[in-house]
Structure formats: C-alpha cells, structure tokens
Amino acid sequence: MPGFHVEHFGCRAARADGEALSGRLRTAGNCLTQPVDANVVIVNTCSVTAEADRAARAYIRRTHRLNPGARIVVTGCYAQRAPEELAALAGVSAVIGNSHKALAPEIAQHLVAGASFTAAAAVDFVPTHSLLAGAAPVWVDDRFAHSFIEESPLAGDRHTRPNLKIQEGCSNRCTFCVIPQTRGPSRSLPRAAILRHIEEFVASGGNELVLSGINLGRWGRDLSPAPGAARLTLAALVREILENTPLPRLRLSSIEPMDWDQEMISLLREYGGSRLARHAHLPLQSGSDAVLRRMHRRYRPWHYAEKVAALIAAAGADLTLGADVMAGFPGESDAEFAETLDFIRALPFGYLHIFPFSPRPGTPGWQFHAASPVPHPAVEARIAALRTLASEKMHAHRQRFAGCSLEAITLHTPASLAAHGRTAALSENFLPLELEGCLPANRLVRVHPLRLTPGGALECAVQALP
Number of helices and strands (H, E) in the chain? Predict the structure, then answer.
C-alpha cells in the first residue's frame, strides 16, 4: 500500500487543512507512515515568521537527505507567499499555495501513483506557473477559488479533539501580518456542511470537536442567509450546534476580542462547563494603546479588559484565558513594553503564546522595521520577561484546581508517559492532565486533581468513567 506523511507547521487551522488532506488520501487507499518510509511527504507550511520559513526549508532538506526517493509536496502559507523559492529546492515535486489547496489531495495522489508533471496532458489540471528547468510545478494565484478542502468525515474513533476548520482567510489589515496575502479574504464553510460533519463525527464516536478558523469570529459574514432569515453569525451557528446536535463537547479556538459579542458571551453563560468548553483564547499582541494603534488592531487595552471581565462573569473563575503576545514591534519603547507587562499582570491569564516580531515582506511592518527596529538584545530581554510572567500566571491558575473536580477527555498518550502507568488528558477548561492508570483515548472522564507535576500538568485520580 502506498505510504504518505503529512508534516504540520503553524496554527490550528493549518493543522485542520493537513488533517483533511490526510483523510482524503486515506480514503483513496493510502497509508499514513513515517517520512523516511513515505512515497510522498506533504509539508504543510506556515509563513507568519521568518523562523517558520526557515524551519520548513530545513525540514524539506532533511527529508530529501533521509528519503531521496520521496516526492515532496509543499503547501500552506509559505507555498503561497514564495512558491518559486520552494519549487527550486531539491526533492520538491510540487508546490501548492493556499489558493489551490483543494487540489492538493489529487496532486498528491498523482505523485503517490508514481506519475510526474513533465507534461500538462498527464494530469486533469495544469500548473498555474510554467515549468522552469529544474524546478517543481506550482499552483498559486490570488483568487483563492480552490482554497477550501472539502473535509473528509472526521473519524471520532481515531481522532481525539480534531479540528473542523469552518472559516478561511482574513480581511483585517494588521500591519505585521502576512495572512491576508497568504490566505486571502475571509470565507466561510456553509452551515449545512458544518452540521453534516458534526453529525458524522458524533455518529463515529467523537466526543470533543474544536471549531477553528483563521479569523473564526468572522464566520458567516460572507454568506447570504435564506430569504427572511437572520444574518449568519458564529454565535447563531454555535447555538444551533448545541441545541440541534448531540455533540458532547464543543471547543472554540482563537477568537478576536471584539468578536466576543453579547450573544457569544451568553452562550458561555448557558453552556459553559457542560457542552461548551470554558476556554477562551483572545489574541492580545500588546497591552500598549500606542503599539496597538501602530499594529492597526481593532481594540484598545480597555476594550480587551472589558471583554475578559464579561467572559469571566459569564463562565466563572474556572475559565482558562489565553492570549498571543508579541515583543519587539517596531518602535516599541521600554515604557510601552512596561505597559504590556502591567496589563498582563492585571488579568487572570492561564497561559500565553509569546513570540518576537518578525518582519514579513509586503507588509507595512516590513517598512516600520526598516525605519525603527527594536534591537535584538532588547527583544530577547522582553521575551524572557514575558515568559517569566507567563510561567507565574500559568502555575497560579493551574494550582488552584488541586482538590477540585474536573471533566476531561483522554488523549493519545505518549509512550514515555504510558510506561509510568499514566494517561494524558485535557480538562474541559484546557488544563493538561496526567491521570493515574492507563485508559484509551477519547474517553470522557471526571477527575480529581492532586498536584502539579514538574512539567506543569495536573496529576489526577480518576473519579468516574462514563
């Protein structure tokens, strides 16, 4: 049986793309394998930072060195942004931008079968770029007409907490972000398709599903409602899922602060802790008003704080709050960074994703960086300060659950943990757990946290099984 491997880089929504691609290839009769044994290796890239680009290139070179016979297919954001750069790398057989990701399963299957693209007549679709000597064929344009992979059914008996990507692209114009270039404007998966996938997931034994998107809160705004029906919104979709499907637990991935409207917050009040996870990830980027303005973010620090207060009032103090924070945006002064630290200290974050500013070609931030870069030592010092603060807040948040009772779902446990007679799990409110005993994945359990492990997970006794 032909083998393939999908290597994921980047965000949850990008991983959903890779999982959908993998599902289509499985359905076609191929088996998932390790890259060293694969006929085709698909590299699902990110390009949000220069480091993400570098990591993808390094992986491609290493894969070609260890498995020179593998056909390497590169897709994702880096493939959209700089396709010719990737097409020239040794071992690459095809480059498929996000604009043509829906064709990726067919192109990969073509390569699994051992065919080539030396002649356009050999395939039912032609590359968008002419074949250059020594370079792989490229499928990229700026129309994004083939950007949604029609997801194969989500196998509830195989996947624990899979992602269902329901929204693609972003129409915001944050000055640091390349996503509008690499994924195009906001587009939504139709409501009927979403509900069908959820019904199939539950029927196959699924217990927890994550709704994801590049700008998830914008779902539905590009869709036309039925005559006489209300406009389509994420809140209305979530309510329909909770009221009209038997999905045991729904989790929402990152949602911009200003997209947490009153209807969304009301859903947390009604369903939080039962069928809707008490977990909210609100990108912050900076706690400085001046920096947020230079970033062209759509909120101010006080707006953000108001949303957090409303979320906690609705879901309770057991809500786990997460955020993305950027250090070293061009022109960020010591005083502006101090405002960010003070702002984070004042809010009950359970975790932070911290990263340095990375200038992306074609964005205003690229010019800002050329004119007013923050020195590298200062960026490193700010990252270190943020990590220290994040660690303090994470431990304080998790420690408070020792002695409580939590709902959780078991995960696919790493062999190193299973060898010690423990099971990896995730609480309903997004806390990493280690359970006493060995349990299969995808089980909903009630647990009693005992203490924090050195790695930051909560060690738990199992109280009840379904």
Answer: 15, 18
Q: Identify any residues that bridge with 210 across adjacent strands, giving them in sequence order.
A: 163, 251
Report the run of H or E that residue 406 belongs to, with start and end. strand 406-410
Query: Could you tell me the pLDDT band of residue 119, with boundaries at 50, 70 and 90?
Result: very low
Domains delineated in the chain: 3-139 (3.40.50.12160), 163-398 (3.80.30.20), 406-464 (2.40.50)
Distance of CA 233 to the CA centre of its chain: 21
State mean pLDDT over 183-202.
Answer: 94
Pair of tokens at residue 106: 């067919």
Give the angle 50-52-58 at the CA atoms, nearest 5°.
105
pLDDT > 90 fraction of the chain, expressed in percent and rounded = 80
Please list, in sequence order, all residues whose beta carbon lies within 8 angstroms of the beta carbon of residue 112, skipping any fewer than 6 positions away: 2, 4, 25, 30, 39, 40, 71
Average of per-residue pLDDT across 377-394? 98
Joined together, the tokens standing for residue 145 give 């007409």
With beta carbons less than 8 A apart as the criterion, state whether 146 and 101 touch. yes
Residue with tokens 């009221």: 243
Phi, psi of 86 (to 5 degrees): -75, -35
Are the beta carbons of 288 and 333 closer than 8 angstroms? no
d(C-alpha 421, C-alpha 217), whole Å: 40
Residue 206 scores a pLDDT above 80: yes
Cα→Cα distances 224→149, 190, 220, 231, 280, Å? 21, 10, 8, 7, 28
Beta bridge partners of 354: 325
- CA dist 393 and 161 (Å) reads 26
Model-level pTM? 0.92
pLDDT per residue as tens digits for the range 23-70 = 889 888 999 999 999 999 999 999 999 999 999 999 999 999 999 999
Q: Tokens 């002695």 sit at which residue?
A: 403
Mean pLDDT of the chain: 92
198 by DSSP, 3-state: which?
A: helix
pLDDT of residue 122: 44
Instruction: Identify whether the C-beta of residue 9 lies closer than 8 Å to the C-beta of residue 76.
Output: yes
* Half-sphere exposure (Cβ direction) of 383: Cα atoms closer than 13 Å: 14
Residues 283, 233: contact at Cβ < 8 Å?
no
